[in-house]
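Thread title: Can someone regenerate the structure for this chain?

I was given the following input by a collaborator and told the matching structure tokens would be attached. They weren't. Posting the sequence so someone can regenerate them.
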Amino acid sequence: MKWEKTTIGEHCTVTSSKRFHLSERSNSGVPFYCSKEIIQKVNGHEVIECDYIREELYEQVKKQFGVPETGDLLITTRGTYGVPYIYSATDRFYFADGNLTWLKDFDEKLLPEFLLYWVKSYEGQGKIDAIAKGTAQKAVPIVSIKALEIPLPSITQQKRIIGILSAYDNLIENNQKQIKLLEEAAQRLYKEWFVDLRFPGYETTPVVDGVPVGWAYKPLSEVFDYVRGKSYTSKELSDAIGVLMANLKNICSFGGYNRNAEKRFIGQYKENQTLSAGDVIMGVTDMTQERRLVGHVALVPNMGEKMIFSMDLIKLIPKLTDGLFLYSALHYGRLSKQISPLANGVNVLHLKPEAMVKIKMLIPCKSILKQYHYRSP
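Best answer:
Regenerated them for you:
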């Protein structure tokens, strides 16, 4: 069945917020979000730090200009763009002009939840990628979002699609909660063994200058080698065929693997640019000034098929440990926090892998490494 084609702007108002100057922001009042706070909420994280605007300013804007209401759709349109979020009844925040595009006043032909799932789809992400402008930090113009062509099923079909996809979302959310619990358990185990040094047998292991006998600090140049990812053009990407390609969007903010952000690549690549479950990848570029991606790592899950990785990533090849410990030391041991500031750039940050090779990592003895591998969640 072929669905009618239409544009987003035909069925809702596409706008942004009232602009607030830095001088109008405050340390308390109504939360004032940029893209990063929306991304945190989409990923299920609590927003801990953000700017605010005074309560009276918010009420003034609400009367004169309007504020988001339940069911409105927000889309990040600068930096990490194309992330949609539906404003809920429990939300109360305003947002920065230019960081987010605000879709409101939907007509009876288009449901905001359907549009959210379309934006998240491969087709939607590809179309938003195509309209992003800029050479350094890209942004998506409001006028281009208005003109985006989308499929328009009947309302009955939209509701059926929303029902199916929301059920999958609930399963994914439950899995993410379990993954979060496992991550927290893994972090606690790493801290207990390698920060507090309460590893198996610690009672009888001598410690000299803060290092257990048989352990040693080694520079990262001795700990792992690295392989650079594949550069590509838009012509080498496909909607349906080709090999899965991990990219910068697969790195969660400050580390971890973000599923369902892969692209499909139909070009040529080298065999050493392939990925397997358990490989460690690191972001080497970043368009966020908070350095949320560069220097941070992810452990590749089992995707059930061959994968490669893009030029914004490097693959770390362990030499003295396995991939699990390497990931743990970088992520839980906060070595990524030391590496991230080494990236340079004005709008786009670039990390030269050679810059981090002198940073040192504590390498335990082989017996403890083996036990850690089997005890980790």
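The mean pLDDT is 92.
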